[in-house]
Design goal:
Length: about 170
């Protein structure tokens, strides 16, 4: 049955069934790898409530940048700042912003890349992802979004779709 299928596919000029399966498995494997790496990097965040990681990957699966949420360089990680949302929100860089700004700092283009994140991007990061030229965003399928973020994530998701960014869960 498999042999016949392969022969038919070859006959009509489509890549072999084997290769089709292999490519699919490969991209799943790399999606999982980069999401695991993003998860690992999220643990470097000092934020006690939310830890997010981001890995930006080029077309050859080369890692171009990484980031996790935290205060900018030179801004002290005081626990009273991190535990108070009023103080924290205006100062903290999200994981995606940090990955993008880290690349800017050292002169690496993120145009046409894929961003692996442990959470769906918020509207603030979405603006930066679009402007940095990121073309695909992947986040874990089992992520649970707190109520307070849901409205913002739905705005972000509308922006990404309008700007032509591919959004996938893996
Ligand atoms: Zn964000």
């Amino acid at each position: 049955m498999m042999g016949m299928m392969r022969a038919v596919l070859r006959l009509i000029g489509i890549m072999t069934y084997d290769k089709y399966l292999r490519d699919d498995d490969m991209s799943n494997k790399w999606d999982k790898r980069f999401l695991e790496l993003a998860k690992h990097i999220s643990d470097w965040s000092k934020d006690p409530s939310t830890k997010v990681g981001c890995v930006v990957v080029g077309e050859d699966r080369e890692i171009r940048s990484t980031g996790f949420n935290g205060f900018p360089r030179g801004i002290e990680d005081k626990i009273e700042r991190l535990e108070d949302r009023e103080q924290k929100y205006p100062m903290i860089c999200h994981a995606e912003e940090n990955a993008i700004m880290h690349a800017a700092r050292i002169g690496i283009s993120l145009k046409g890349t894929m961003a692996y994140v442990t959470w769906p991007p918020c509207s603030r990061c979405t603006r930066s992802l679009i402007q940095a030229g990121i073309s695909e965003v992947v986040y874990p399928e089992d992520v649970e979004i707190p109520e307070r973020w849901q409205k913002d994530f739905s705005i972000a998701s509308g922006m990404m779709s309008e700007a032509g960014i591919i959004v996938r869960m893996a």
